[in-house]
Queue: 2 jobs
Job 1
Amino acid sequence: MNTLEKIQTNLSNFSKSERKVAEVILTSPQTAIHASIATLAKMADVSEPTVNRFCRRLDTKGFPDFKLHLAQSLANGTPYVSRHVDEDDGPDSYTNKIFESSMAALDVARQSIDPMAINRAVDILTQAQHISFFGLGASSSVAHDAQNKFFRFNVPVSCFDDVLMMRMSCINASAGSVLVLFSHTGRTKALVEVARLARESNAQVISITAKDSPLARESTLAVTVEVPEDTDMFIPMASRLAHLTVIDVLATGFTLRRGPRFRENLKRVKEAIRESRFEKPSNL
Amino acid sequence: MNTLEKIQTNLSNFSKSERKVAEVILTSPQTAIHASIATLAKMADVSEPTVNRFCRRLDTKGFPDFKLHLAQSLANGTPYVSRHVDEDDGPDSYTNKIFESSMAALDVARQSIDPMAINRAVDILTQAQHISFFGLGASSSVAHDAQNKFFRFNVPVSCFDDVLMMRMSCINASAGSVLVLFSHTGRTKALVEVARLARESNAQVISITAKDSPLARESTLAVTVEVPEDTDMFIPMASRLAHLTVIDVLATGFTLRRGPRFRENLKRVKEAIRESRFEKPSNL
DNA sequence: TCTTTAATGTAGTTAATTTACGAAAATGTG
DNA sequence: CACATTTTCGTAAATTAACTACATTAAAGA
């Protein structure tokens, strides 16, 4: 709940003087955020510490912090909010809603990711002798994408979206093998089983999945991602986007770790594709 | 213009030290709004007055006022700016940059999409007797994802990431066939050729690609998407995300067109997967 | 009415921000 | 290339704002 609404709802819980402060803020919030604690106290006809206590009561660190929160709740220009598609939405409407929900989901995912986990994952990946990407169902395309990306790095990669192949691959895995498993829920039995098998072969298992999930527990390293999934649609949407972005992050970390000379290599890969394309007109 | 964008655009107008401050703020704006001027100065390795001058340069009354503006722009609409990853960025920094760039890219893509093209694409898809998804290279995983999604709709679908298979598939295509081609550039010779072949077989060709590209011209319907691609990295990143989101939009349009009874079907598909998963603890 | 507790204000303390000024760097000029 | 001028930046002092501790008052209960 945003701060302004919070003031509104808690109005009855405040003491007499605190309510005076609340009234002033609700009447002209724009003035409030630019006022000093002294000014505001005078406007509400209370003492400065009362204003301060009022702020603390709203779970803020103090007056300046409170102003920050208030400012944010005032800037309600409908940010990236996940919005549900309605039955009677037109193309224009549902297109926007879905794009906005996707952006909102990425935002949530971003905040939930632990950069240290990313860093450790990059550590492991850079030392890998072979990287395998595994994903089932909707995550199989994510795994394919990862393969495509890391293939460009001139690292031995493979990718499976088939449980039997995964299991066979695990048996042949060794200490230098790194497996990257993608699963939104982290509860797909077959995949959790694969993680266990792989670890029995001393391979390293990195999972991109949900926090505290069976898969996360079964992995050497879990990069946990929180994604708000719109369950109305019964189709995973946002989680793929988040996982793909995690791939981008890992790939970026990988290239950074390898240094500038390595990037020359990427350039050459890209140039190798060029001749398969039609030239762009003149302006470039 | 919001404060964060303003910092981004004026980056070149700042002096050396002010730019250091700008970098710190752009890297972690959330930290910045909660920091004191002293902390921020230390983070940017400049003096406190420099931070203050930086604030004034952005038409604010001073540091506290600046924080207020920044807080608002963080809460507001599109605070995300596409930013390049630096050589010496840490995991925290590049993770944020990439997520933010992705969000910014989706925002640009959203604005560039013509809802009427979406609508027509949905028209065509709902009437299809068979849908094939084609993509090469980085787009092959996009095509796979589309297949996975539309497969749930109980529509005959196929997916190819191999040119020969695509061509064979085109020969066998008929009037009821719909091909969906994914290509960021729209300049991949092989794919443009496939589009032509398909149309010769009277199949409908929908392309998700760049505006005014050879592929767009060769298609029955082009859903054109503009994506700001960070060419520094030599790896396609944002375009896949945008294309996947377009898939989501098309799939959504598809289900809406089919009506509520159709969505019951999706629910059943989802429930069919359930038993392959570990139960979630008790709280749900 | 007295006691106890909660609420509020006063005054002092601490912390943060801003200003004034001077040094250093950068830029332009003879 | 030396010198002058302007811009940039930092140090230190001054100012302002915010917070704490404590005293006082009001309210509630016995």
Job 2
Amino acid sequence: MEEQNKKILLVEDDPNFGTVLKDYLMMNDYDVVHAKNGMEGFEKFKKDDYDLCILDVMMPYKDGFTLAKEIREKNTDVPIIFLTAKAMKEDVLKGYKVGADDYLNKPFDSEVLLMKIKAIMQRKATDSVADSKQFEFKIGRFDLNSKLRFLKFDGGEPTKLSPKENELLRLLALHENDLMPRELALTKIWRDDNYFTSRSMDVYIAKLRKYLKPDPKVEILNIHGEGFRLVVNGNDK
Amino acid sequence: MEEQNKKILLVEDDPNFGTVLKDYLMMNDYDVVHAKNGMEGFEKFKKDDYDLCILDVMMPYKDGFTLAKEIREKNTDVPIIFLTAKAMKEDVLKGYKVGADDYLNKPFDSEVLLMKIKAIMQRKATDSVADSKQFEFKIGRFDLNSKLRFLKFDGGEPTKLSPKENELLRLLALHENDLMPRELALTKIWRDDNYFTSRSMDVYIAKLRKYLKPDPKVEILNIHGEGFRLVVNGNDK
DNA sequence: TGCTTTTGTTAATGTAAGGTTAAACCTAAT
DNA sequence: ATTAGGTTTAACCTTACATTAACAAAAGCA
């Protein structure tokens, strides 16, 4: 069973410490992107989705709090851990009320950091009441429950979906009525883009079409050379 | 608002080190009971409820692992932290698979210990939102009494459940209609996640299905690669 | 138009996960 | 020492998935 590694954005200006920390986290099966300052950190953040941000507070140009604020403007959900100097009191930190999930005084025990990360990730995982919306879709007369991997037609018997079927349909639903680029699915779901994965994806499209047949208003259209489009007719706009 | 201090059982044979550690923990607002060896540790454990156990591994008469095993028989939930010699490798420790929540190499940084304690307490606190003191469940036409380990059909003769059967069914019931991840049961009940424990779990699923057969509306569904789902049909929504 | 590339669909294949039953193994209690 | 209850391991079988192959049909392009 393969599980996707969690992605961490690490923003730390001290190159030595940053590199060591990055390596340590990667050894513990996290995907880590290391930015050397606040600017770069924000650029990287915009370019990708992260499960967690670890921000050094003391940085030139753009400090951790300012960066956090910008990040929050784009995404209210990512957990943030601040690395602070020993001296700082907690109440000082609270003043910035930017919604930190944790603070860690430098220097810190790397194991402690790991634990905090785990705890936060787990909390987020169980929190999912909030983002359950991302897992349930109405597609014409169908209901897709992407967490439990089933598709229901008119509230009847649910059809089980395989992981790939499920993820693909979910991606299409996320882009309902819009182009879902081939490449997006391939990189997100298959994590590889070549002739064979592409053919495999086509096979899955065929399967999904079969599942969706009961509702004639629901179609998966191909946009030649570009990707696919899940449309629900009558859902005009 | 008054909050009760957390209670810690400390089992450590070195009187000096033990006393120092005890004082340190008490200074940090924990109630600490200090036992000087494994025997005494177990006696004290039986006499009271603890939020956490800190066990030295290397002790005369009864080592920490043996003690932990006894503790686990009485209580599957208390978090346990082991104090180990530097030399011990983690995989050696895992062999004992007694469900440690953490290991700490002696000598260790007392602040690190504090943080680990905090982390564990917090984890327990959030865990228990879900599975707190719930021991009675209605599952279709069944009643599960998880404290007394029996399952009743239509209020008739109760079927006795073995500890593992019971815990597994309870976990499923806690997640009724929702995914109960395989991994969750394995780490919570078997305290180890490998091929064999996983197969063992499957055996238990089969047993539970047999028990639940009398009510056709109750099913344990598999979600391939993810886990199981206890559903009660007609309990729609 | 004819040729190439992309997509549609179905079937075949290989592997991993899960289902089930029975035997082996442990351990506590007799 | 024997036994009974509980659990794990083994063995064998079925189902679920993903990939690849094979061939057909569209779409784009020269």
